[in-house]
Amino acid sequence: MNPDVEVGDPLSNSTARLSICQADIDNMGDDNPRLQVKELLRKEGNVSRRDSAVSLNSFVEDDQAKKLTEKRRRSSVQSFNTTQQQPPKREKIHKRKLKKISQPPSLLLQLDKYKNDAKKDQNNDEGDHVRFPFKNLRSLVLDVFKASPGTRLKWCSVGNGEKIPTVCVCFVPGLQLEQDAKDDMEQQKPISNLKKFDELPFIYDTFPTYIRTLSPGNKDSIHSPLQTITNVPLTKNEKKTLLDQSKTDKITIRDLLLSQRDLEEHNYPLQLSNDLWEETQPPSTPGESHIYALDCEFCKAGNIHVLTRISLIDFNGEVVFDELVQPAEEITDYVTRYSGITEELLEGVTTTISDIQQLFLEKVSSEDILVGHSLESDLHVMKIKHTKVVDTAVVFEHNRGPPSKPSLRWLADKYLGRSIQCGEDKGEGHSSIEDARACLDLVKKKIVEGKLFGKNVGEVPIFQKLTKNPNYSGDFKSLWLGYSQVKEQASLNEAMNLTKLNLKSDDEIVENFVKEIPSKKFAVVTLRDLEFNSQWGNSPEYYTGDLDYDIEKSMKRTNDRLAKMYEALPDYSLFICYSQSGDPREMFRLQTVRRNYQRLEKEGYDVTQLSSEENWPFSKKELLMEKTALARESLTFIKLKVPEN
């Protein structure tokens, strides 16, 4: 009892207890009330039951008072720390939902619900011949990895997609499998509707159904399915961000070199046609290389173009040589409006194309880089093979996109603010030196502005989108196996967590697939044995695979490779096998005829003098559309690898 508090004060007991701090209690010694209570409790015989109860109650009240003090102290601290929050409560998962998420992944195709949307997507009039658009396969990949939030697939349902360890898309062009023509409206059909080949047991034993697919493209051309699957359209905000970032990514002129596929696609000379052709040779000093810009002017000798002027300038814009050429053929049209060449200008000129070839080979080695606009035409007329090329008609894009090409005059006006080829309007023709300098300046500006400068930025690599996907936690790694000898930008692939290998045969591709796939989430693979042996395209020089042109043997080899790849995939992986099944060769031939006809017409040639093979009447236009529709016919096989019990 505190002696300073009067007896009878109603607050005396509680006030006395609250006024005693721990230090006071410690200093009391034997007068400590808690010790006194403890001592009284020990003396059972000397303390009455009532006194013990009173002393114990006092001790309990002391303890309650202490707790009250602590509570007030905590309240006071919390009042100064208003930002402190209570830990979130763990959400209680319903039993039904818990059971659902504990199930393995699943995939259910529902193409019957998607039929009408697919018909609209084709944007053409094909009656009942509805096909499944190829780009939906890209949507499936993005959906599995939750990389396209807010979108929902109408044609399939993926359950617990986050548990799918790997998605593999395999391209196998050339599976020309005969189909049952009945029920043409059906996109998804049982595998039994395909004529069975003994060389393809993997296809028939693994996939219960197949999907009749439409390759990407339009009425008279096919777009690359590989580019469609590996590129994702961007939103407006994504485009702006990408362009800003591109300016900070440094590139060199070697990043703009045409790839082997580019050279093939744009009809660059890749072999010596006859003894009149020459090829650039290695430099006398190993490792030495230069950059030149080239432009030529042509006249016509009958149905062919002949070289009449050639200009070569160095990287500083200085003229290396500028020569007029007297062709061996008789000129029938000087095309002065474009070439600037007249009969008077060539009078007395004795320089031949052979002289030009030797002069060119003295200046330009196989390691030097040629810059120009649609240089395939110049090299063909010069009869020169050279593969290190930067083509401003390719590295810059037309507003409409491929296959349209921008004109050099338009590029110079848009990106250099420069008017060139003004002599065309006066009938005086172009200046090859002026055009060569414009090409060189365009390339220089592109190197400064970044690789996306002059491109229709609308897409981003799917590998980049998946790697930077905020809805996926973990180290996302991708694999890309295909054919090419172009050196990739290592830093770009590293940024996308992408292992990209350019190989020389299907066997090499499968071998590397088996080795790399255990650590990868997404893979894109191309097998081309069937394509090359079906002679749908020319195999590259570096190709080391079988070329026996025996379709049955090629099918068997392809079947075995697909089986090995499927076996190497982890359980519950998603395997997508896509094959262009329509023969594209006649479409390619007609496209070449059309391209040559349009070029001659643009250059002012009298197209009425062309032969029936070279002409482009309306009937050929209709035939091209027919052959393109056939070439776009494709087959898709989809399988979730469920382990056998």
CATH C-level name of the largest domain: Alpha Beta
CATH architecture of the largest domain: 3-Layer(aba) Sandwich
- Biggest beta sheet attributes: 9 strands, mixed
Radius of gyration: 39 Å
Distance between the termini: 81 Å
Portion of residues in beta strands equals: 15-25%
Briefly note the CATH topology name of the largest domain.
Answer: Alkaline Phosphatase, subunit A
The secondary structure category is alpha/beta
**Overall outline:** globular
Query: Regions with pLDDT < 50 over 5+ consecutive residues?
Result: 1-26, 44-61, 118-128
Average of pLDDT = 83
Integer count of domains: 3
Tally of DSSP β-strands:
22
Percent helix among the residues? 25-40%
In DSSP terms (H or I, runs of 4 or more residues), the helix count works out at 26
Region (Disordered): 66-99
Protein name: Exonuclease domain-containing protein
InterPro entries: REX1-like_exo, REXO1/3/4-like, Ribonucl_H, RNaseH-like_sf, RNaseH_sf
Domain Exonuclease: 290-452
